[in-house]
Specification:
Elements lengths: L29 E2 L3 H6 L6 E4 L14 E4 L4 E2 L2 E2 L4 H4 L2 E5 L20 E3 L17 E3 L6 H16 L2 H9 L15 E5 L3 H10 L5 E6 L3 E3 L2 E5 L3 H4 L5 E4 L13 H6 L5 E4 L8 H9 L4 E4 L19 E3 L10 H18 L2 E2 L5
Parallel strand pairs: 2-3, 2-6, 6-7, 7-8, 9-10, 9-13, 10-12, 13-14, 14-15, 15-16
Antiparallel strand pairs: 1-17, 4-5, 11-12
Helix pairs in contact: 3-5
Family: Belongs to the D-isomer specific 2-hydroxyacid dehydrogenase family.
GO molecular function: NAD binding; oxidoreductase activity, acting on the CH-OH group of donors, NAD or NADP as acceptor
InterPro entries: D-isomer_2_OHA_DH_cat_dom, D-isomer_DH_NAD-bd, NAD(P)-bd_dom_sf
């Protein structure tokens, strides 16, 4: 489904965050009334529910009542937060990759004003958000980790590192001539913060990068093409890297028509969301050996045992670990500390999605 030209929008382009997640289509800054002022009438400090103990989060402001819910226990006690606490929570920071643990009590927090995720993608929580609650994502937190994996997947697939591992297991010396990343034409589909981070890591490999976003614009590194230009761009790309958010526009963006436009032997790398690709259409191309794929995300996910994608020729699969690296935690905790400071002081929050 290569889309028609998009209508004008004031939103800025975002992209996948860690293959852990794809960034939604817009971010912004918006002010939230001072937490301290809002709670003054009750004579109590604003209550915030964190996924980490307060001592692990740098830069926390004074004047907040902090509690911990990590998805398993609240303040060290197994189970969800008690009703008395939920009734007072004004800001919630969701546990990483465990959004499902907070969904049952999202509607039980009448004073809730802000939800801060630790993922770039918010498609798992946005439909469940109570009216009037501000939603912030973790744009920027996963850039380094996701970009690193995108390049690693491209290199591993091109140089056939999985084949070397299989050869080592079988005690086989698999010498030969393999494609290099150098001199390849790379098309980055989704040029937000993750897409830009991918480009920064690709350039030392002496590649030619073409950038695609929802709408055309000019970036510091050069022109950014629109999604509507994909039919003209795909036939020239040796490597196509997906870093788009999962939206109505990008769901099944990579379908039979998209794949047919890719040149023979091209490599598709997906660090966005599995549903950006129509799996059956990709399987058809992999089975005949015309394309290759390196996927950190799949649809369905987790990929069930026995699914044909596991053993399709020319495919490399990692288990949605784009954002799950040692680079994540310090960046996530710095963002949380900074956002709580803004919240406490009534300053504009960053990465507002609604």
């Amino acid at each position: 489904m290569i889309p028609a030209p998009a209508t004008a929008s004031a939103a800025t382009e975002s992209d996948a965050s860690g293959s852990a997640a794809a960034e939604p289509a817009a971010t912004a800054s918006v002010a939230v009334d001072s937490a301290a002022t809002d709670s003054a009438a009750t004579g109590s400090a604003p209550v915030v529910l964190l996924p980490y103990p307060a001592e692990q989060v740098p830069g926390l402001p004074d004047g907040l009542e902090l509690h911990t819910f990590d998805g398993d226990a609240c303040d060290g006690r197994p189970g969800p937060p008690p009703a008395e606490l939920l009734a007072r929570v004004e800001m919630l920071v969701t546990p990483y990759l465990r959004t499902g643990t907070v969904l049952p009590f999202l509607g039980s927090m009448p004073r809730l004003r802000v939800v801060q995720t630790q993922t770039a993608g918010v498609d798992d929580i946005a439909p469940h958000l109570p009216a009037g609650v501000t939603l912030c994502n973790a744009r920027g937190v996963h850039d380094a980790s996701t970009a690193e994996l995108a390049v690693a997947l491209a290199l591993a697939s091109l140089r056939d590192l999985p084949g070397f591992v299989r050869g080592q297991d079988a005690e086989q010396w698999r010498s030969g001539f393999y494609p290099a990343l150098a001199d390849k034409r790379v098309l980055i589909v989704g040029y937000g913060s993750v897409g830009a981070a991918i480009e920064a890591r690709l350039l030392p490999f002496e590649v030619e990068v073409t950038r695609v976003a929802r709408t055309a614009r000019t970036a510091p590194q050069g022109p950014v093409h629109s999604l509507a230009e994909l039919p003209e761009l795909l036939p020239h790309a040796d490597v196509v890297i997906l870093a788009v958010p999962l939206t109505d526009q990008t769901r099944h963006l990579v379908d039979a028509r998209f794949l047919a436009a890719m040149r023979d032997g091209a490599l598709l790398v997906n660090v966005a969301r599995g549903a950006v690709v129509r799996t059956d259409d990709l399987l058809a191309e992999l089975t005949v050996g015309r394309l290759r794929a390196a996927l950190d995300v799949t649809d369905p996910e987790p990929l069930p045992a026995g699914h044909p994608l596991w053993h399709a020729p020319g495919v490399l699969i990692s288990p949605h670990v784009g954002g799950s690296s040692s680079a994540f935690l310090p960046r996530a905790q710095r963002l949380i500390g900074a956002q709580l400071t803004r919240f406490a002081n009534g300053e504009p929050l960053e990465n507002v999605m609604n």
